[in-house]
Each structure stands twice: as structure tokens, then as C-alpha cells.
Amino acid sequence: MQKGFCVHRRMKIRIRFRMKETDVDKPGIGSRAILRTVISVVCIFVTGILLFYAYNNITKSMSASNLRRVAQQNITVYDMRFSDNRSMLRNISGTLKMFNQMDREQLSRYLDKNAAENHLFGIYLIDSEGYISGKDGGRKKIQPSSDLDRLLKEKEDVFRVGVFNSSEDAVFVGIPVEPYEVAGVQVAAVAMAYSNASLYESLNEQLYDGAATIILADGYGHAFMRTVGNMSPGETFYSVETYFGELSFTNGIVLSNITERAIQGKSTTIWAKDGKVEYCISVLPFKSMDGYQIFMVPAEVIKAAVSDNLRKVLVNCGMSLVLVALTLIYFNLYTYRRDKGQYLEIIRAKEEAEAANRAKSMFLSNMSHDIRTPMNAIIGMTRIARENIGDGERVEDCLKKIDISSRLLLGIINDVLDMSKIEARKVELAREAFSMGAMIDSNRMIMERQAENKQLTLEFKKTNLNHDAVVGDSVRLSQIIMNILSNAVKCTPEGGRITFEIIELPCTREDSGRYRFVISDTGVGMSEEFQKHIFEPFTQENDYGRSRYKGTGLGMAITKKLVELMGGTVEVESRQGEGTVFRVELELPLASQEEVQSGTKEPEDSVFRSQELLDSLAGKRCLIAEDNELNAEIAAAFLEMAGIKSEKASNGQEAVEIYKRRENGFFDIILMDIRMPEMDGYEACRQIRGAGRRDSLTIPIVAMTANAFSEDIELAGKSGMNAHLAKPVDAEQMISLLKEVLAGEKNG
Predict the structure, then answer these.
(1) Cβ(503)–Cβ(324) under 8 Å?
(2) 270 vs 279: CA distance, rounded Å
(3) Residue 547: which pLDDT band, with cuts at 50, 70 and 90?
(4) Which residues lie below 8 Å from residue 222, measured CB to CB, with a gap of 6+?
(5) How far apart are CA 673 and CA 680, in angstroms?
(6) Alpha carbon distance 657, 375 (integer Å)
(7) pLDDT tens digits, residue range 140-188?
(8) Which residues carry this modification: 4-aspartylphosphate (predicted)?
């Protein structure tokens, strides 16, 4: 029996990440004083910088807030002016409606009188068809426009700026009214026009010592009023974009974004630069005319307007913070010295827990990486055997390959679960004689199909292999080779080439052989940075070219640990886009061919088939408690090979009932699964042990379960079981264990 293929490890996975500890010297009194002084100076310096930035930020914030307030006051003044205009028009309209018997001459005098008293260009009556009647008594058709539609159709107030009589800037205000007739005019709206200069007087040019720039613009970006420069009639609609085009706004914002927000009714305050001069700009919606106001002041002017009290408050706060910082520094140093060891332990535990959680997530997501290669061989060979059921020789060859792949798969799973054990150097390597060439041929058979599926050229070479028989752990060595070959296949694109070469090197010891294994591929390669971490647990390169080559991230870490446990070395060379070369060097004791042959006997010559063992178990009865029919069938078949009769129970409750139904001593042994419906194996064992029969405390009960961690073995013993058999079950191991238990050699 080959020990390496049959030993099932039953250790729980414990993923440990060790943080490099830094020795902390205990400085003397002088050193501590220097340390405190340095830290204090640094803290004061940092605090000063933070206060400086805080002062600037607060100053900016208060400056912007102050500018918004002043700008809003301007908008309020405009709105009040517009409100007064509307009130005047409503009063005039009410008077006309009340005295609607007046004739055209009386109407004209009334409108002229009110226009003159209020310094207006004129007051106008507009009928529902868009004709306007003024002080001269004339009636003219108004050009259709969106403003006219709003006034007559949507019944909305209108405030607009334009050119009066093609010469003067004017402000137009109109309000809709309930229709009435006066002097033959069907009145639907009343409007007024007055000089733009009148509205201009509302702008306070002396704000911020005359440094403020105030611009009123309509929704089309046309400025109709500003406090800088002159606006001749021909320039009434001055482009806002032209005036502010040279400014560079913060955060990559452009002027159009700001004006669009204003048109939508949203205000914006932002900082901008024109060369080296910084400005604070507030843009507020001017809803009265569907436009907006731009209020711009140089930064140095507006910041100077911030009260000196702010500076005093910040200085006082800064000094207080410095004192608090100094106190905290001293206290923290004192606490650090007192609790240094405990603090470091807490930090270390936290980092280990976080690292373990990250590793667990990565492990679960990529678990399939390391098991797919042998699983592919198992599935493929099973299908081939089924298709060639009449070809005994072909079927036998498939079964041998399935057996090899199954054992390799089991070894990989055990290695993944035993990662923490490998890191702790608690793994015991097998010492058995094996053929180096045969082991390599087995690996080649497994890898050939995967290479063929990707249309890869796979070449195996043996150079100077003068000593084929060696002593060591063939399963672990095979795992090392398979890990590297599997990565090569996954990371090599179709049409690529993979070469495996074993070279026997000169060895200074006569009873040992020195071997170098070289695996090279023409795959995607690795970056230099990743090569530094490739042998760390759960490490994978996130490069685009390798994003589809995912695994658990344990393969190379296990490889390095196993190589080191064998006293060897492993190194890697790689260039992105060109390929990778792995070199493993090991020195192994030599063996004779006779030792190799004795260690690889066929099953019929092994302990399992020994007549002594069969005779000792023949005729025994076993109760199998197993909820999975296939597992129960396998166990029953293994028992039947040894002459043991069996009876099956599909859950723990049924197992207890069958046991109690049979007479004392009917069953010689019980195989008990753990996870079963109705009643689990632990409870079933406890009930059997407490049944009060003569054989209740003596009948051997063996846990046969996939729960293979160390705590599971401990729980099985505490529940009253005599031994633990981990799945997948090996026939030889099962029979050997049952013999030991029945002979009293194995106790819980």
C-alpha cells in the first residue's frame, strides 16, 4: 500500500498571517525627553499648518457667505422695484376699469399724466389680439414673441429689457388683467416702459469700495446692465460669455454650467482666477425676468471685509489646541509606555483577523482552481471507459489513470486544508521508495489531456537521470510539479509550448541524488512586482492578461513550503508577454529498484488481501448509519470485500431503532455518519451508549464522515465514538481501522 495516497489528513484549516514585529527599545530618560520634544514640535508644527488651512477655509467660506448675502440683497431690491411697477400698473388698470366711460382723448391724457409723473417712456394698453394703444392714441401690432404669449395666453407678468424707439435702453413691464373696454380699446394687459438708467440706479456701485462687478443678464446670456464700462444702445445685449471667458473656475467648472443652474433657479458661489487675480463670484437667479445676476469681487477685497474677530477667535483656538495637543502628547506617550505590549498585541490580532477574513473570501471564490486538473482527468477517463466498455485493456488503463488522478485530487484537497499546518512546519513528509521516472510519467498522463484541449505543445525531458529510484514523499513531489504545470497550462494561450525537464546534477553525497526540475512556458508571464509575492498565500496578479487565470492563490505558496520542507529551493524568472521559467532543486536519498517494486505492489498483494486479515473479519456484522445512498453502497461494498455483513440506516434515529431492535451482540461494529436528518451521529451515539444493554458501552462505533477537522475528531471522541474515519473512504484504510478497533487496538 502506498502510504502517500492513503493517508487522509484530518486537521482544520487555520490561516495565519504573521506580522513582522518591530523591536521597541526602551529609551533612557534623556532619550524619552528628546522623543517627547520632537513629537511636541512636530505636533505644534502640524497644528499650525492645520490652523492656517482652517483659517483660509473659514475665511473663504465666510467671504462667500457674505457675498451671497449682499448679492441677494441686490436681487431683493430689483424684485421690490418690479413689484412696485406691477402695483402701479394694477392701480392704473383699476382706475381705467372704474372710469371706462372716458373717451379716447381723456384716456390719452390720463396715460400721459401717469407716465410723466413716474418718469416713464409711456403706459400702454394691449388687447387680446396683440395690438398696443399708447399715449398718442395710435394702435400698433406688436411683433409676436414668447413674452407676448406669456402675457396674453399664459397670463403671466413680464419683465424684459430692450431698446425703445431704436435708440434708448428700456425696461418693459407688463401684467395681464381681466378683460374690459375703455375708450373703444379691449384691454387684456397693461404695460409700461421706462429708461434702463432708472433701474441702473438700483445698483450700488460702491459695494466693496467700488471693487464689485455686478451684471444683470437674461436667460439667453445677454447682459442688459453692468457696473463696469459703458453700455451704448448698440451694446445693450452684451455677451456674458465674452466678458467672463478669460476666467478659470475651480474644479473644472465652466461658466455655462453656472448660468444654466441660475436659469433653473439655483444659486452658485464659486472661486475663479483671471491670471494671478482670484475672484469670488456669486450667481443668483433673477426670477422676475427669467435671468440672473452675476456678482463678482476680487478675493483680497472680500477677504479683507471679514471681521478681525474671526482672526482673534482662530488664534485663541489655535493656542488652546496647541496646549491640548501638548497635553495629549504627554498623556499618549505615558499610556504607550505603560500599555505598549498590550497595544501591539491588539493591533496584531486585529490585522490578523482582517487578513484572515480577506483570505477566506478569496479562498472561497477561487477554490476550484487547484482541483480542476485531476478532476478533468477523472471525468474524461470515466467517459472514455464508458465508451469502450467492451475493451478490457482500454478500460483498465482508464481505471488506473482515474485512480492516479483521484489520489492526486485528494492530496491537493488535503494540502489546501492543511495550509496552516504546512506553514507551521508540522507536516510530516513520507519516506518511501519510488521511481522518479514513473512519478513524472504519471504527471505527464494527467497533463496531456489539458494541454491537448488548449492545443498546447507539452514536452517532457529526462536528462542524465542515472538514479531513478529515490526515497521521499512522491505525493508531495508530484504535487509540487503539478502545481507549476497547472499554472503553466492555465497561463499559456493556445498554440503555446510548455516544457518539463528533469536533470540529475552532480551530488557530493554518494547515497543521495540531486535533481533539478525546470518547467518553462510561453505564456503571459508575470510582472517583476508580482514575482516578489508569488509564493505568498492567496496572492494573485490582477493584470488584465491574467484576469482569466484564477485559482485559490495557494498553489505556489504550498509549492514553496513543500520544497523548503524537503530541503530544496524554488525560483522563478518571468517576463510579461514572453513566458515563465520555474526551477526546483532537491536532494533525495537513493533507493534500490527492489525497494521501489516492494513499495508499489498491486492491491491483491497488499495488506488488504492478506488471508490473516480476511479471516479475522469474515462473518462480522456492521450497522452503517449513512443518509447518502451512494456512500452507504460504497461502504457496504468495501465491507463485503472483507467478508463483513452490513445493514443500513438512513439517519441517526433509524440507526438507534435498528440497534435496539436487534439482540445483544448482533452487531460487531457501527459505522456512523455525523450529518444526517432526523438525528445526527453524535446524538445517535449518545443514545446507543445510554441504551442500557450489555453491549451498549462496548460495541465499537466509528465516525465515518466528511467532517475531517481536528475539532470533529475531538467531538466524535467526546460523544462516545471509538475512532474517526474521514471521507473519501479508502478501502484499505477502512478495513485496517476496523481490524484495529475490533481487536481493541483503537480506543476513543
Answers:
(1) no
(2) 8
(3) very low
(4) 236, 237, 238, 239, 240
(5) 8
(6) 39
(7) 888 878 788 888 888 888 887 665 555 566 788 899 999 999 988 899 9
(8) 673
Q: Give residues with Cβ within 8 angstroms of 501, minimum separation 6.
A: 460, 461, 462, 463, 517, 518
Beta bridge mates, 500? 460, 519
Q: Are 607 and 613 in contact (CB under 8 A)?
A: yes
Cα separation of 34 and 29, whole Å?
Answer: 9
Which residue matches cell numbers 508644527? 45
Q: In whole angstroms, give the CA distance from residue 575 to residue 522.
A: 10
Other C-beta atoms within 10 Å of 628: how many?
15
Burial pattern 34-47, b for ≥16 Cβ within 10 A else e, equals eeeeebbeebbeeb
CA distance 489 to 728: 28
Tell me the three state secondary structure of residue 698. coil
Measure the CA–CA gap between 713 and 522, rounded to whole angstroms: 46
Query: Do 697 and 667 meet the contact criterion of CB atoms below 8 Å apart?
Result: no
User: The C-alpha cell of 562 is what?
Assistant: 513543500
Q: Which letter does DSSP use for residue 729 in this model?
A: P
CA–CA distance from 492 to each of 233, 518, 523, 535 (Å)? 77, 16, 4, 19
DSSP secondary-structure letter at 21?
P
With H, G, I as helix, E, B as strand and everything else as coil, classify residue 154: coil
Amino acid type, 623: L
| DSSP 3-state of 192 | strand
Alpha helices in 491-552 (DSSP H): 528-531
Rounded CA-CA distance 563/541 in Å is 22
d(CA 650, CA 629) in angstroms, rounded, equals: 8
Domains and CATH numbers, the chain: 99-199 (3.30.450.20), 408-598 (3.30.565.10), 607-742 (3.40.50.2300)
Quote the strand ranges of 466-601, DSSP E: 469-472, 497-505, 512-521, 569-575, 579-589
Query: Beta strands 497-505 and 512-521: pairing type?
Result: antiparallel
pTM of the model: 0.40
Average pLDDT value for residue range 48-65: 71
pLDDT (tens digit per residue) in 329-353: 666 666 656 666 676 777 878 887 7
Pairing of strands 701-705, 723-726: parallel
What letter would DSSP give residue 391? Answer: -
The answer to whether the CB of 278 falls within 8 A of the CB of 15 is no
Q: 104, 137 in Cβ contact below 8 A?
A: yes
- Assign 418 to helix, strand or coil: coil
Instruction: Give the cell for residue 127.
Output: 388687447
CA-nearest of 680, 701, 704, 705 to 747 is: 701
